[in-house]
């Protein structure tokens, strides 16, 4: 039934029939829309977003443009084809930088450090011993002979306490997640792709004639194809998908002009991370490993346990003895699954899912969007 709260103009210009309806205006959904318009300029593409802003992790991530610390790579190598996984991450970052531009992203090639405490001496030694191995393995993908090096001598200069080993990835960086999403939204509208916010999708009705996407506001969009790009929230519409949510909590301090921390930093097997923002605030995030079950949720929220863990990391390791004011706290939701590679596949005729970036959405998002667009355009 037609929504009679919508005008004739709204029906025809915003909610009219589409060649492709994309559900989710995050990094994957918007890049898929842009790449699809490059391939099929005449197609009518519309993006549907249930929040006022993208509701998952695209505007709530920590802004790490990373592809893996040594301890993470050691663990991930046991799960499958590591070289292909890292290649996909590097390709995704390259596509994102090409599509948006480093200036719009505020991309900074500052490198990424992994920190080890004295009690992690065995793990630190294992990782140090793997430096040459991973440098050789990743050279064809990264394009540099040396990706990792021992930077333990820099711990004192950085003011870090309780850090015995520091290993650096020379080719990681940081970006501004808010500017990234503003740039992608602007490019989508400029490409004649309406991005309709506050448009929650309730059901996808499929038939031989196509698909009817039913919205919570009563509107229905008819589409020849549908792309589901809601990452951790995918199972709300398609419960059969192998996607498990993982909430990440973040905090940001007051400005700290005297602190200088160039780089991105990974701690506690990569489950904690921090960096300095351009306005001299410190951003810290992570801690879901403290209670995986509690953080296996799509609900936004903060827990005392994780927030106290992050604050302890701040005052004991990053800024020893100091207790800066915390000005921002939030959470975002990532999507995880049994394989490290994203899930990009047809889940029913004409309905494609591009989800499950396994906590690497910044690195994998644009590449995932590009692959989704290729499948849709070739269908």
Keywords:
379 residues; alpha/beta; 8-stranded mixed beta sheet; 12 helices; 18 strands
What does it look like?
The chain is of the alpha/beta class and 379 residues long. It has helices spanning 8-13, 27-39, 70-77, 82-100, 102-105, 121-129, 131-142, 155-158, 177-190, 292-295, 304-318, 361-378, and strands spanning 18-23, 45-48, 64-65, 112-116, 148-150, 165-169, 173-174, 195-196, 201-207, 210-215, 220-228, 244-253, 264-267, 272-276, 282-286, 326-336, 343-348, 351-355. A hairpin with a 4-residue loop joins strand 13 and strand 14 (272-276). Helix 2 (27-39) packs parallel to helix 9 and helix 4 packs across helix 7.
Summarize the structure.
It contains twelve helices and 18 strands.
**What's the end-to-end separation, in Å?**
29 Å
Average pLDDT, to the nearest integer?
95
Counting DSSP H or I runs of 4 or more residues, the number of helices is: 12
Main beta sheet: strand number and arrangement? 8 strands, mixed
User: Pairing-aware structural class of the strands and helices?
Assistant: alpha/beta
Q: How many strand segments?
A: 18
β-strand amount: 25-35%
> In sequence order, what are the helices and strands, one letter per element?
HEHEEHHHEHHEHEEHEEEEEEEEHHEEEH
The helix content, as a percent range, equals 25-40%
Uncertain runs with pLDDT below 50, 5 residues or more?
A: none
Rg from Cα: 21 Å
